[in-house]
Amino acid sequence: EDKVVQSPLSLVVHEGDTVTLNCSYEVTNFRSLLWYKQEKKAPTFLFMLTSSGIEKKSGRLSSILDKKELFSILNITATQTGDSAIYLCAGDTGFQKLVFGTGTRLLVSP
Amino acid sequence: DTAVSQTPKYLVTQMGNDKSIKCEQNLGHDTMYWYKQDSKKFLKIMFSYNNKELIINETVPNRFSPKSPDKAHLNLHINSLELGDSAVYFCASSQLGQANGNTIYFGEGSWLTVV
């Protein structure tokens, strides 16, 4: 059965800290790994990773995929209170289906 | 303009009732989905439709019946609602056949509470 596991489940940091969120996956017919940020409503797309070792960056966020070890990390540097959210990782099975992890709940305190 | 819009946003109803949630996307995508997010925030696919055809049905009880009148709309009808149906239901869409996989765009969710 396809499975995506995220760690930690929750995390509290101070503004300015750097955080690393982890995602491991076991997904048949794996095509890509996606990261989403969910605040109060809809998950919003952050990154799609398809190749190992190529870092994707967007401002203070970056992510990388290791297809040999079947994991991905999401880094957030110089965290701000607006980064507080649930971060979801999902594996694309290639069958029009994303398998999500349970998410990491990040709280950035002032 | 909201890319994926769903209505209603909030719904409180009694056990045994039948209710529908509507979804529309204006992204020109060919595939639409329903996802369910439970109280623990676990997001799981229920259905997907590609060009109005059912592609995925993830062992969802047959009280749940999706309907896609055209590729821009995917509605979800739920019969005989149960307490365990309380959740947030997210509609989503994507365009298959993209070179680099399947980026799904989500609606804002419909909060269903069954009492």
What is this entry, summarized?
Chain A has 110 residues and is an all-beta fold.
User: Considering DSSP H and I runs of 4 or more, what fraction of the residues of chain A is helical?
Assistant: under 10%
Q: Which topology of chain A does CATH recognise?
A: Immunoglobulin-like
Report the sheet-strand fraction of chain A. over 45%
Distance between the termini of chain B: 33 Å
What number is the mean pLDDT of chain B? 89
Counting structural domains of chain B, the number is: 1
Largest interface: A-B, 26 and 27 residues
State the major sheet of chain A: 6 strands, mixed
Uncertain parts of chain A: none
Structure commentary:
The complex is a heterodimer of chains A (110) and B (115). Chain A is an all-beta fold and 110 residues long. Chain A is 0% helix and 58% strand. In chain A, the strands form 2 sheets. In chain A, strands 2, 4, 5, 9, 10 and 11 form a 6-stranded mixed β-sheet that branches. In chain A, strand 7 and strand 8 form a beta hairpin. By secondary structure, chain B is mostly beta strands. Chain B has a single domain, classed as Sandwich (Immunoglobulin-like). In chain B, strands 2, 4, 5, 6, 9, 10 and 11 form a 7-stranded mixed β-sheet that branches. A 4-stranded antiparallel β-sheet of chain B has the order 1-3-8-7, with no helix packed on it. In chain B, a hairpin with a 5-residue loop joins strand 4 and strand 5. The radius of gyration of chain B is 14 Å and the shape is globular. The termini of chain B are far apart. The mean pLDDT of chain B is 89.
Provide the fold topology.
The complex is a heterodimer of chains A (110) and B (115).
Chain A (H helix, E strand, L loop, with lengths): L2 E5 L2 E5 L4 E8 L5 E7 L4 E7 L6 E3 L2 E6 L4 E6 L8 E8 L5 E3 L3 E6 L1
Parallel strand pairs in A: 2-11
Antiparallel strand pairs in A: 1-3, 3-8, 4-5, 4-9, 6-7, 7-8, 9-10, 9-11
Chain B lengths: L3 E4 L2 E4 L5 E7 L5 E7 L5 E8 L2 E5 L6 E7 L2 E6 L8 E8 L10 E2 L3 E5 L1
Parallel strand pairs in B: 2-11
Antiparallel strand pairs in B: 1-3, 3-8, 4-5, 4-9, 5-6, 7-8, 9-10, 9-11
